[in-house]
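Notebook, p. 212. Picked up where the previous page left off. The plan for this session was modest: take the two constructs that came back from the sequencing core last week, fold each one, and keep the raw output in the notebook itself so nobody has to go hunting through shared drives later. Recording the first one now, exactly as returned: residue sequence, then the structure token string.
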Amino acid sequence: MPFLSESLLTGWEASQQTGFIKGAINLPAQSIYPTLPGLVQLFAGYSRVVFHCQSSNGRGPRAAGWVADALLASPSPAEGRPRVLVLTGGIKAWLAQHGETPSLTVKLE
């Protein structure tokens, strides 16, 4: 899937979560803001960075906003910056649609 290979998906670990997006990095929400300079460097290698939380109604969009602002303030040229997106419906929607697809989801037992 070209979209996934050019994207970095970020989310948060949750005790009730039954799976994760394969290849995504899972960061605690409270770690995003204090580590923005390092994350901006990490995200520079991707064309898209997709954020999510359980339903993408709170932490995911908030973190996406912090990162988008930090990318705009970075000295890197605009054409080299990734697009910052939010996964509609969060991990709940992802698992409902792709939860049984091993190439897309890591299931927790």
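Okay, moving on. Second construct, recorded in the same format:
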Amino acid sequence: MGRITLSPVASLGQPCFFHIIVIIIIIIIIIIIVIIVIIIMTIIIIIIIDHLPSGCPILAKNEYLMRHDKVCTHLHYSICKALAIETADKWYTHTHTHAQASV
């Protein structure tokens, strides 16, 4: 009579069916975990991006005010350049002091 062995490798050197199923299940579990982590990280990033600065009133006031001031400075610089009024070399170093002196 033939002898039955519980070897993980069947005859002819091939892995047994049980081990193949276990490996496939482990791979599926790893893929599911990776997908869950990606979804969670995406949600966290969306929350952070939404919160800063528009969702945070403290930062929004400062950020919007600074952006407004920069746009106004560039606009004033461009108008002064177009009218041949003395200006700084760079728009971001431009000040409004000469405009206040002439008023």
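Notes on construct two before I forget. Residues 13-55 form one domain.
Flagging for discussion at group meeting.
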